[in-house]
Amino acid sequence: MGTNIGVYYHVHTSKSFFTLKAEVPKENPRLKTLIDIHPGALFHELEVTDLIGVVFEGNEFHGHFVLSENWPDGFYPLRKDVDPSKVKLVPTPEREANKAAEGRQVKIIIGPQHPALFEPAKFSVTVDGEIVTNVEPRIGYAHRGIEKTTESRTYMQDIYLVERVCGICNPCHAYGLVGAVEKILKPDVPERARYLRVIALELNRIHSHLLVLGHAGLEIGYETIFQYFWRDREPIIDLVELTSGNRIYSSLITIGGVRRDITPEHIPKIKSVIADLRTKLPFYRKIYNDEPTLRLRMKGIGTLSREDALKLSVSGPVARGSAVDMDIRKDLPYEAYGEIPFKEIVYTDGDTWSRMNVRLDEVEESINIINYALDHLPSGPIRVEVARSIPVGEAVCSLEAPRGELFYYVRSNGTDRPDRVKIRTPTFANIPAFLKTAIGESIADVPSNFASLDPCFSCTDR
Amino acid sequence: MIPMIDFLLIFRILVFPGFTFIFFLALFCEWIERKLEARIQNRVGPMVAGPSGILQPLADIIKLMTKEDIEPRDTKKWVFRLAPLTAFAIMVFAMCFLPIDGASVLSSGTAIASSGFNGDLIIILVFATIANFLLFLAGWASSNPYGTISSARVLTQFLGYDIPLFILALTPAFIAGSLSIGAIAAGFPYILLAPWAFVLFLITMQAELEKGPFDVPHSESELVGGLETEYTGAKLAFLHLTRDVQLVFGSALVVTLFLGGPSGPVFFGLDWLFYTLWFVLKLLIVVAISAYITNVFARLRIDQVLTGNWKILLPASLLSLMLTVVLAIWVYHPFGIGV
User: Fold this and answer.
1) DSSP state, B52?
2) In this structure, is the dihedral angle defined by the CA atoms of residues B285, B286, B287 and B289, taken in order, positive or negative?
3) Is the sign of the CA dihedral B249, B253, B254, B256 positive or negative?
């Protein structure tokens, strides 16, 4: 309700983390853009312009970036003084259709509903024959206003809400919020809970990686490998059910610990299932290395150089596939990761094949991590009681989700509800990489290139 | 003079081994293919309709026939309506030239060798090309961007692969010294005399049938339903049937040219029964090989498919023809092999 808007730039360099703060008057919120210094800021600035109304000079956008097309101009939903009852929706503009662009070029609209996309997003791809010359993204079709909704619920309710940001990596979102809140509250989280959290996050990483490895097979017309990966993913989901009680939305991680313990009877069962998965990995590695048609479709496709990867601030397996050794579990260890030995997987080619191989190798590392955590599981309680109200403060939590770095910023105001929750999801950071690598390649490579980012639009839109 | 009505010929064309038999053989092959594909992919495949889901393809066709038939406003109406039906009819007609029960459908039951006429091999290859062209028209007339791109790919692909297909089909014809399907089928299992040509022919057939790894016109991740995108109801059913008959036709051609057609031991004097049995069994082997190839490879890109054709398959098929000519004239024919 103040007269100024604070603009925070959270910067994560190779081994350190800092925040730049700027303030702009609410009357005329304008700032100079950062994209000429750091092109990776492009999407983030556009999102802030759309949701809060801070205009970044040099990076203006016509229309809406995240909000619906019939949302009126001048209403910025994330501002505190916005009155939802005053919002008058404008008529929806005419839908864009496939049409001829300049000269020989044709504009093909991929999405919002398209078999290659399992979630709604739109890419207007301009092609010259079969070669892509331009890609314009439009996200926001699954925007549910979760950041705003968190402000009207208690922290305990918010954990369940942020899990709904993304079905696949839901424990990561739960941990993102919990981790940030715990940095303000500083409860004494038991050792055992810290290991159980690692197990939950790693099980999640395994099943998410298996999912995208199969999905990439589907995108290059390799249905057999799709069916195989998804078959092997089922037992892992059964393990999630065994350890948390739910197959998908585990709701395991909570402020002050975890909700459910792993009993001694569970341990042999978990170990046998992941040992079984480990025996299947050499077969998949063989397919990825030796299968000629798969190599034809993945090698040298969507190549992202190390310089571009750094410039566009991509994260997760996309960055590690481009020789950027960036893994939050190693760089800023959270929970028990600092005590568990594991390898950071880095491939140097930067193409679709490297990104998928990073994931394949990470499945094996995750199996090692779970085995280590089960062997070294400390005894003791799994949870401490915490206060419902969180003292005034602000904190960030950054963690390595299966798709890349997931970032949470929480500001509390002393009540049991947060003042502001900001979620930056990995796909949001990785889409610019796709926009860059798709240009100049065949339209037939667009789906597999895009699938190699492991895109998640319900994350991106929130 | 009252013209004689050849009831046997009418029965042969309409029931066995003509239309009805080919129709059910096509559905049976689709079932085999789906079942094999499912087992390769560690699934179970069709299970519900009939024992082990054997009636599933028929159930699918009946279901599609009863569905509403929608024609989008911008389609070229007559082409859109006629193309699927004509393509199906032509494919069935092409099948009629193959010696399914020991003689081609159009002859009334004579020996394998004399059942056709010299040059019918060329005719059925042309029919297959026309059917492909009609499929191209079907997609083109639907005025849908996905259908149009898919059609363009169908055209580029079969134009390219028709050339090696024709050249390779000449290999057994040259050894047999005849362009008559009957004479080739009655001759020798030419796979033994020209195994390299058999392998090349299988690959070319896979591309001609637009099956994996050459299924670029149907790549659903880019093209949604491909040329079938705008089709519904009975027209879609006929497109699916055309695909099934094409599969049977392609496999039957491989059987006829390289695996000795319907030849095999005959017992109890029931030559038509055993000829049909051997023909269908050999056909199923080819269908199984084709399903296997489809499922162990990823889909190639259209430029890779074309490069494969012009840079590898075409020179290879020419080499194969040269090798065949040399072997046939100086080795096989002097010793009386395969004639």
Assistant:
1) G
2) positive
3) positive
Closest Cα in chain B, distance from residue A302 (Å): 14
Q: Which residue of B has its CA nearest to A110?
A: B222
Contact between A223 and B297 using a beta-carbon 8 Å cutoff: no
A447 touches chain B (CB under 8 A): yes
Residue A230 with chain B: CB contacts under 8 Å: none
Decide if B291 touches A, using CB distance below 8 A: no
Strands A55-57 and A30-32: parallel
Q: To the nearest 5 percent, what fractions of chain B are helix, strand and coil?
A: 70, 0, 30
Q: Write out chain B's pLDDT in tens, 339 residues.
A: 666 777 777 888 888 888 898 899 999 999 999 999 899 888 888 888 888 888 999 999 999 989 888 888 888 888 888 888 999 999 988 888 888 877 777 776 556 666 677 888 888 889 988 988 888 888 888 877 778 888 888 888 888 888 898 888 888 888 888 888 887 887 778 787 788 888 899 988 888 888 878 887 777 666 777 788 888 888 889 988 998 999 999 999 998 888 877 877 777 777 778 888 888 899 999 999 998 988 888 888 888 888 888 888 889 999 988 888 888 888 777 777 665
CATH T-level assignment (fold) for domain A4-86: Beta Polymerase; domain 2 (3.30.460)
CB neighbour list of residue B7: distance below 8 Å, 6 or more residues apart: none
Tell me if A317 sits within 8 A of A355, measured CB to CB: yes
Report the C-alpha gap between A43 and A35 in whole angstroms. Answer: 10
Which residues in chain B are contacts of A228 at CB distance < 8 A?
41-42
Query: Which architecture, in CATH terms, is A146-461?
Result: Orthogonal Bundle (1.10)
Mutation test of the interface with chain B: which of A124, A218, A293, choosing the one with the most B Cβ atoms within 10 A? A293
The Cβ of residue B189 has, within 10 Å, a number of other Cβ atoms equal to 18
The residues near A285 (Cβ < 8 Å, ≥ 6 apart) are: A360
Residues ≥6 apart with Cβ < 8 Å to B183:
B113, B116, B118, B176, B177
- CB count within 10 Å of CB A20 equals 10
Q: Count Cβ–Cβ pairs < 8 Å, chain A vs chain B.
A: 71
Domain ranges of chain A: 4-86, 99-138, 146-461
Cβ-based contacts of A292 with chain B (< 8 Å): 297
| Whole-number Cα distances in Å, A92 to A47, A51, A72, A461, B5 | 20, 19, 10, 19, 69
Residue B154: closest CA among B168, B166, B141, B167: B141
Partners of residue A109 on adjacent β-strands = A124
Q: Answer whether A215 touches B (CB < 8 Å).
A: no
Closest CA of chain B from A223, distance in Å:
7
B5 touches chain A (CB under 8 A): no
In the block, residue with structure tokens 């046939």: B328
